[in-house]
Amino acid sequence: MPAKKITRAVKICRAFKAAQISKGYTQADIAKRLGVNRSTVSRWYHSPDEMSVGSFRLLCTVLAIEPADILAID
């Protein structure tokens, strides 16, 4: 059985989740800081390609991630 290919979106999701965990935040914490619903943060994690540029930058700021590091994920 061939290995399952991990997509770029999944890698981005994992990077966001890892940063969240390292900061000790919940999705609810992030949502509160950004003024959005927790479900919105969850959707961004699972479909990062659907996130607006502004939301992407804000999420990176809250998680203390350089946007360029996320964009460099291939």
From TrEMBL:
Residues 16-70 form the HTH cro/C1-type domain. It comes from Ruminococcus albus. SMART domains: HTH_XRE. Gene3D superfamilies: lambda repressor-like DNA-binding domains (1.10.260.40). The keyword Glycosyltransferase does not apply. Keywords: DNA-binding, Homeobox. InterPro entries: Cro/C1-type_HTH, Lambda_DNA-bd_dom_sf. SUPFAM superfamilies: lambda repressor-like DNA-binding domains (SSF47413). This is Homeodomain-like domain-containing protein. Pfam families: HTH_23. GO terms for molecular function: DNA binding.
